[in-house]
Give the backbone structure.
Amino acid sequence: MEALPTPAFSKYWLHGGWVNRCAPNANVNSITGIVRYNTSSTALPTTTSTVTPSTHCLNEPLASTIPYLPLNVTNIPPPNLVLENLNFTAGAVFHWTINTSSLVLDWKNPTMMHVFNNESIFPTPYNVVPIGRSSPTASPEWAVLIIQDVGTINLAHPIHLHGHDFWVLAQKTGRWDGTTTNFNTVNPTRRDVATLPGGGYLAMGFLLDNPGAWLVHCHIAWHASQGLSLEFVEDQKEIAMKIPEGEERQFRDVCKSWGLHTPVWEQDDSGI
Ligand SMILES: [Cu+2]
């Protein structure tokens, strides 16, 4: 196998200090790790940071995280723009809501069971958003999720999408104007998690190239527990085709066993 080209620096300090504003830590300068491209190296990196510590709860400015390998976002058919409003209900129990529904899953009948059963209607609290290409042979198509915080708490949320890297097309305070005019589609920051600003919106673009059931959730664990999540079911007809029959059987066996099992404790949160 051909060796990968060696980057200019082969090892880097990774520093968690950026989070200190939102999650204060007495030993913030000790939250470090090392990223090494040479797995046999034990030398310490000599890299230094030019990052100014954050004064807010957002991620680094998008202008500071322009990808080295440029990739643009193209072709967003209008039906693939998905707007979801984040809010909350605070009765005896606090719940986050996505378009008025707080996510709650039934572990013995998960989303993929509905997919294997060819059901296209999912339980409301599964917060399923069907998405997919206009045809299996369509040229590359993108989808965009716009999460709009319409609540009054004004908290920033780190939003994570399963199944895809995503491109940060917009990340702003205030209301989305309903158009793609102000989206940055030219080599936007690519992320695994990006911050939804309190009272604002986050527009996450992803290429529709991976049929499956993909969770989107706040990465603050107790917010996910309180229902801050939705699921994309992407190109549902193609999902089962991609999964070997043996695996589907195993999946059904596990769900059946789970259904027969008497739980030691009851499900007491969203289930994710
Ligand atoms: Cu959150």
In short: The mean pLDDT is 91. Residues 1-54 form one domain. The chain has two domains: 1-54, 78-242.
